[in-house]
Design a protein that fits this description.
The protein is built from eight helices and eleven strands. By secondary structure, the protein is of the alpha/beta class. The chain has a seven-stranded mixed β-sheet with strand order 3-2-1-4-5-11-10, with helices on both faces.
Length: about 260
């Protein structure tokens, strides 16, 4: 089992292969920007930015963006993506709890997208992390947290995600994600199988795994209130649909200071 740093360092090379950024951003950006506009947000901290897909897109739309991630390998990819887009975005390695010291200037909004919170395995780590996100916000600022809907997933325990396909360094590449559930420990093992095809047509596979905690809506709500956030809004995806614990694929929370 890999730590989250090891997991994402190894995944960095393949992350943009497994993510259809044009399609994803076309769906997500309208709601994200509408939410930012509601809070008159112009300075944004993307605190689990990965390879920088959201950071780059928001900077292209005129926002002042900074990005943080626990993985230096992910941030190297993010910096390369920003450079290709002819953008200057400060990307810095930081754990959630270290965000206020790494980014001391308060922001209008903090976004934490892509199912990042479940990597925090204890209540104390989760509380320290969302408290640090709050400390990065100006008065009246907003936090947007996005993760899978574990009210539904923990009940149904689906194993398989969609397979993503692409090319990496001229090699056909498949990325297959799947989950294992431990009811007794209340943990999920998140697995990614990376299939690559060599010049002779043969496939090789590398599987890497990391633990996650299935935070449900009530737990997220309690954490955010304990961290000092007040008004909370819940959505079922990054298109702004109403959250339904029984049917929504995702859980998106918008919280204000």
């Amino acid at each position: 089992m890999l730590t989250e740093i090891e997991f994402y360092d190894r995944l960095a090379e393949f992350f943009d292969v497994m993510t259809d950024w044009p399609s994803r951003l076309a769906v997500e950006l309208p709601f994200i920007e509408t939410t930012l506009a509601r809070f008159d947000a112009h300075t944004i901290l993307d605190c689990a930015c990965g390879t920088g897909g959201h950071s780059v897109a928001l900077a292209q739309h005129g926002y002042q963006v900074a990005g943080a991630d626990i993985s230096a390998a992910m941030l190297a990819r993010a910096q390369a993506n920003a450079t290709r887009a002819e953008l200057t975005i400060p990307f810095r390695v930081a754990r959630f709890e270290d965000l206020p010291s790494v980014f001391p200037e308060q922001m209008d909004a903090v976004i934490c997208l892509g199912n990042s919170l479940p990597h925090l395995l204890t209540d104390s780590a989760a509380l320290a992390s969302v408290s640090a996100m709050r400390a990065c916000l100006r008065s009246g600022g907003a936090l947007m947290v996005h993760q899978l809907n574990y009210d539904r997933r923990w009940r149904e325990q689906p194993r398989w995600f969609a397979v993503n396909a692409g090319a990496l360094a001229g090699r056909e590449t498949l990325v297959w994600r799947f989950a294992d559930y431990d009811d007794a420990a209340r943990r999920i093992t998140f697995n990614i199988a990376l299939f690559t095809r060599n010049a002779q047509g043969a496939w090789t596979v590398d599987v890497q795994s990391t633990p996650q905690y299935p935070y449900q809506r009530a737990e997220i709500e309690m954490l955010l209130h304990r961290a000092g956030f007040r008004a909370l809004e819940f959505f079922g995806n990054l298109q702004g649909d109403r959250f339904d614990a029984e049917h929504s694929a995702d859980l998106v929370v918008v919280a204000t200071v």
